[in-house]
Design a protein that fits this description.
By secondary structure, the protein is α/β, with parallel strands linked by helices. Helices cover about 65% and strands about 10% of the residues.
């Protein structure tokens, strides 16, 4: 995916884009109906009175204004609920929901369509043919409104709920994992860990501070091919870049020009917030944030924490099974080398903080220990070692935090039982 394609994909997810397009469509349809009489005179077999259309458009205009106002209020309440009971990082997923976008777009577009149609009727812009076309289009708009209302009502029953928010985060994380499996090293070859801290080549640094959101590896590959050089990418999306952070090293037979360094730097997009697109770890972090809020004394909802542990286990089981096969693919961009996602980082993002905040709750620690024992028995050895390291850390924290000796013994016995072949 190029940078332009990535920007367009992010733009398509914006709520106001779809609403604006539907609004423009409604205005254009209302205006075009007035031209039908001039383009196709006498070709409409029936006539519709202005009063009939006026009544329909007036009903649509008044009702859609009220429905849109209510919908915006309901959406704001859902954002507030997702923030207070889940995490603020999940609200962007609510704005990207297609049902939400289609419903609001239909309501606003229908409102503007009816307003323009009423104005045109009052100034007698429609002839008999135009009124007939406007009447048929109005019936179609009413059908769209009914369908949008049914979908919106169904969506309101779960929008902003904790379970819905967690499900969206898990699905977004799974999509990010799937995208990474298709391009295991963002299309490049694997970069050895020993080459990350030091190595030959000209360093490319960033002058800005923020989160690395996107790397245009296709553009970097083209630059490397043209210059006959190799580019080692040293950071992955999700990295917090300070000023003068080294992003990449360029190695080639010729001296690396300043223009090439500038072009390489432009392939790295740095923003104020992380995104899910090329950053699977961000999804794990956001899921963990939901669990931490649920485990806080103010909320005291261990069930949600247990639910998040199960989703982490499902995601990391999937990753452990699929990664070993995916990373053997031939690189799409052989002149690029990119570091891999490490199991230690993934497991730390998923379980470390939950073990810290849930250390004093036996029900949470039992589920966490059983999940880590299970993950320690599947996948490649690196995944198993990461799971065992997190399990040991969780047990150490639980032994210090659990106030009752019986609970500590119960946890130890559960781990021993789950570890049996």
């Amino acid at each position: 995916m190029s940078k332009i394609q990535w920007l367009l994909s992010r733009l398509r997810k914006k709520l106001w884009i779809r609403v604006s397009l539907f609004a423009v469509f409604g205005v254009v349809v209302a205006i075009m109906a007035s031209l039908v009489g001039r383009l196709f005179p006498g070709m409409i077999p029936f006539d519709v009175s202005s009063d009939a259309i006026d009544s329909l458009l007036s009903i649509i205009a008044s009702s859609m204004l009220a429905v849109t106002t209510f919908s915006v209020g309901a959406l704001t309440a859902a954002y507030s609920s997702a923030t207070s009971h889940g995490t603020a990082r999940a609200t962007q997923l609510l704005t990207q929901d297609r049902v939400v976008q289609n419903s609001l777009a239909t309501f606003v577009g229908s409102f503007l369509f009816s307003i323009v149609g009423l104005i045109a009727l009052k100034v007698s812009a429609y002839g008999p043919e135009g009124r007939a076309v406007l009447f048929v289009v109005t019936l179609g708009i009413i059908a769209l409104i009914v369908l949008a209302l049914l979908q919106w009502i169904n969506q309101l029953t779960r929008l902003g709920r904790v379970s819905d928010t967690i499900g969206r985060i898990e699905q977004e994380t799974r999509d990010a994992f799937d995208a990474r499996l298709k391009l295991p090293f963002l299309g490049g070859a694997p970069l050895p860990e020993t080459a990350i801290d030091s190595g030959p080549g000209t360093e490319v640094v960033t002058p800005t501070v923020g989160y690395l959101c996107f790397i245009d590896t296709a553009h970097l590959s083209d630059l490397a091919e043209e210059a006959g050089c190799r580019i080692d990418i040293l950071v992955l999306p999700g990295t917090f870049a300070f000023a003068d952070k080294v992003l990449a090293r360029v190695t080639g037979p010729k001296e690396v020009s300043d223009d090439l360094i500038s072009e390489v730097r432009s392939a790295f997009t740095i923003d104020t917030m992380r995104s899910f697109d090329q950053d699977p770890r961000f999804g794990l972090v956001v899921l963990t944030e939901v669990a931490l809020r649920a485990l806080s004394p103010a909320v005291n909802d261990p069930g949600t924490g247990i639910d998040v542990i199960g989703r982490h286990t499902r995601l990391l089981s999937f990753w452990a099974d699929a990664w070993e096969n995916a990373c053997t693919q031939a690189p799409q961009y052989p002149r690029l080398r990119v570091p891999a996602l490490t199991y230690d980082d993934l497991f730390e993002d998923a379980f470390s903080l939950i073990a810290r905040d849930g250390a004093g709750q036996i029900d949470v620690m039992l589920r966490l220990a059983k999940s880590l024992v299970a993950l320690g028995r599947i996948g490649p050895e690196a995944s198993r070692q990461a799971a065992r390291a997190q399990l040991q850390l969780a047990l150490d924290r639980a032994r210090d935090a659990l106030p009752v000796e019986q609970d500590r013994q119960r946890l130890t016995a559960a781990v021993a039982k789950a570890s049996q072949p």
